[in-house]
Specification:
By secondary structure, this protein is an alpha+beta fold. It has one domain: Nuclear Transport Factor 2, Chain: A (Roll), CATH 3.10.450.50. 37% of the residues lie in helices and 33% in strands. This is Nuclear transport factor 2 family protein.
């Protein structure tokens, strides 16, 4: 009897071990390819919103006050005025797709960004985390997190220096 029980237990364990559930984590998926295309578009200044759902919401360094995909593209166009060059580096990029317990599909990526300020040619490197939720192959939510402090401080310094130079040029009354 013990042998039959042990045989049944081993058979049940072997059978359950062979059962493949849905893929919950991968580093190769159509959604990851979409995010890689989005990153490539950003680097080439191709501002395409076709991979976003019409109702998508984008959050940069916040979880409040979302913007639309077209507003996100406008944001990138406006900030481009500050840079002689900018883009994500091609090395050390990490991408993963996960399906949550609630069945949501997310792509996470960790990237290094490099920009050169147009006003003084200072190079700035920033690690960035981006995460995208997908529904039916389209991005419905995007979150981007990075520390902009170095850029903000450098732009403030450039502005202060320009103001000082302007004041020095004004004639004394």
């Amino acid at each position: 009897m013990k042998k039959i029980f042990l045989l049944c237990t081993i058979t049940a364990l072997a059978f359950s071990a062979c059962q493949q559930g849905p893929v919950r984590y991968t580093q190769d998926s159509p959604e990851i390819d979409t995010v890689k295309k989005l990153i490539s578009n950003y680097n080439s200044k191709t501002f395409d919103t076709s991979m976003y759902a019409d109702t998508s919401k984008t959050y940069y360094n916040t979880n409040k006050n979302p913007i639309s995909a077209s507003d996100a593209m406008d944001y990138h166009k406006q900030t481009d005025a500050n840079y002689a060059s900018r883009g994500f580096k091609s090395e050390n990029q990490e991408y993963e797709m996960v399906v949550t317990d609630d069945g949501e599909t997310w792509v996470n990526c960790w990237l290094d960004w490099k920009g050169t300020l147009a006003a003084n040619n200072k190079e700035i490197d920033i690690p960035i985390h981006l995460t995208y939720q997908f529904v039916d192959g389209k991005i419905v939510r995007e979150y981007g997190y990075w520390d902009p402090s170095e850029i903000v401080m450098e732009l403030q310094k450039i502005e202060a220096e320009a103001k000082m130079a302007e004041e020095e040029m004004e004639p004394m009354e």
